[in-house]
Amino acid sequence: MGFVRRSSIMLLFVAGVVFFPATARAILYIDINAPGGRRMPVALPPFVTAAGDAALAAGIPKVLADDLGMTALFEVIPSEAYLEKILPSHFAGKLLSFPDWKLIGAEAVVIGKVEARGDQVTVEMRLYDSTMGKMMAGRRYSGPARHVRLIAHKFANEVLYAFTGVRGIFDTEIAFSARPGKGRDKEIYVVGLDGQDARPITNNRSFNLFPRWSPDGNTLAYTSFRTGVPVVYLRNLRDGTERALVKFGNTKSPGCFSPGGDSLYASVSVDGNSDIYRVRISDAAVEKVVEGWGIEVSPSISPDGKKIAFVSNRGGSPQVYVKDLAASSGERRISHAGGYSTSPSWSPGSDRIAFTSQSGGKFSVYTVNPDGSDQRLLASGDGDSTDPSYSPDGRYVVYTFQKKGYSELRIISADGQWGKRLFSGFSGVGSPAWSPRR
Amino acid sequence: MGNGRAWKYGAAILAVMMVFAFGCAKKQAVKSTDTTPTAGAPSAEGKAPEGVVSETLKPEAGAVEAPSAGPAGTQVASVAEAAAGVAATEEKPSLFQDIRFDFDKSFIRDDAKPILAGISDYMKKNRGAKLLVEGHCDERGTSEYNMALGDRRADSARKYLVSLGVPAGALSTVSFGKEKPLDPGHNEEAWAKNRRAHFVVR
Amino acid sequence: MVRRGHRVQPLATEPGDRLFRKMLGLSGALHAAIFVLGVAWLALSAPPVRITPIAVVDLISGGQFAPQPAEATRKSPTAEARREAPAARTRASTPPAAKRGKEAAPAREVSRQDARAFSERIGKMREERANRAKVQDAVEAIQRENAVRAAVRGIGDRVAHRVDLSAIPPPAKVAVPPRAGGGMPGAPGSARVPPEILAYARALDEKVRANWTVPELAQKDMGGLIVQVRITIEKDGRVSNVRMEKVSGNPYFDDSVRRAIQKASPLPIPPAQLRGGEDHYDVGFRFFGEGWGS
Question: Which helix (H) or strand (E) holds A377?
Answer without folding.
Answer: strand A376-379
